[in-house]
Amino acid sequence: MTAPTPDLVLDPAPPLSAALRDGTRADHEAAERSDFVEHLVGGTLPLAGYVDLAAQQHAVYTALEAAGDRLGAAGADGGLVFPELVRVPAIEADLAHLLGDDWRTQVRVLPATAEYVARLEAVGDDLPRYAAHAYTRYLGDLSGGQILKRMIERHHGLSGAGVSFYDFPQIHKLKPFKDVYRERLDALDLTPAQRDEVVEEARVAFRLNRAVFVDLAAAHVA
Hints:
Largest sheet: none
Distance between the termini: 78 Å
Shape: globular
CATH class: Mainly Alpha
Strand content: under 5%
Number of helices: 10
CATH topology: Heme Oxygenase, Chain A
Helix content: 55-70%
């Protein structure tokens, strides 16, 4: 008599935060290795380049945070919208410090940034894809962004005003907060197809961000 075949035990899917980390690693590294970022970190980027970066961030975060507000108002944000993370007021304060109160008349939105904003406006009301963009932006600000802040302060003599984008005064310890954010991501009630959508959209987000760096490099890197 043939012994019954034991039921196969499938490996559980990895947490979404781990799938995002692993699935976007190559795109993330490509963005970090861009000429613009290398000059920013290396201290060879003129201050005007950093100011232009802040202007592009203003456009991107305005679109991202508008999407978060809409999801939150509808009770559909999955717990991913935190007031502690809001960046637009800080960016506006930085631009006012760097350019003066009439900064809005001095900045421009680059073509790659306009494409990034259009993508956020097109997909931001869909929680899985909003989660992808919020993950790439906010966890990046809380991680590698803190290294960028130190480099910018060192190379351009800025402190406080001018780099407040990278400050999170309502978050007293960054690592525990990042852990909570990842837990919220992992707790999202998503189908396997939606999980795949989050990872793919995060890859799109990194590519869009890299395209912004390419435009910035064309303007500011000799």
